[in-house]
């Protein structure tokens, strides 16, 4: 089991991997990323992540990048690591080029990756649920593109940590709850699951979609519908969803309990169903 990096075709130890100072990802945040996780030696939902990656590249008018080559590289790095339960970051920047805001006339997309064991969430957090705070969404208007420009997310997460909370939820100026700093959010209200519709204001989470599909399978009523901060306060259950977050119960928001303050039945059911879908059911707690 080895933590490894990949830089434009070359696999090497993470400490030895470097990028040039004129990489546009570094100078302008002109780069997109994906985060994959594996369960029991297999990367989960690879094609869904590649679909989203292709969309991010297209929306930012990147030069063509071969999906097959990226898939091969991801699988090659993952196999080389030998890590059963890994987290793999893939980042593609537009080019290395002398600093100029406009796209460079030459220069190819730069592909870098890292692979490491997943830092599992502490079991206590999964059992008692997370506390979150709400913050004003100061992000740009294309949060549907998975770019490395994450400064508002970084600041919001830090604010949560300083408040003794696990995460922050972005709320719009007109009180719509968007998503977490690195996760989507669901609530259960009047027996229905609600999550923000797919608009440019949120990331189309792979886990979010898996959960919506699982709701159909489990006959749990679910709707992609806007909900407000007050709806969140009044919800019976709430949870975050994401690749390593999986289904993480939220039991406190802005210092107040959600529902009875315990992890609710729909949250529990969906956590188990997601772990089963990922082939990790036996490890579920
Ligand atoms: N983040 N929303 C935001 C803003 C995210 O950054 C992420 C993922 C999600 C959930 O997407 P998915 O279910 O596809 O992981 C929602 C990754 C995990 C990260 O930044 O590390």
Structure explained in plain terms:
The chain is an alpha+beta fold and 285 residues long. It folds into two domains: 4-117, 2-Layer Sandwich (D-amino Acid Aminotransferase, Chain A, domain 1); 123-284, D-amino Acid Aminotransferase, subunit A, domain 2 (D-amino Acid Aminotransferase, Chain A, domain 2). It has eight helices and 15 strands. It has helices spanning 24-28, 46-59, 67-81, 123-128, 151-162, 206-217, 229-233, 265-277; strands spanning 4-7, 10-13, 31-39, 42-43, 86-93, 110-117, 130-136, 167-171, 177-180, 184-189, 192-195, 222-224, 237-242, 246-253, 256-257. Strands 7, 8, 9, 10, 11, 12, 13, 14 and 15 form a nine-stranded mixed β-sheet that branches. A six-stranded antiparallel β-sheet has the order 2-1-6-5-3-4. It is globular and about 55 Å long. Bound molecules: N-(5'-phosphopyridoxyl)-D-alanine (PDD).
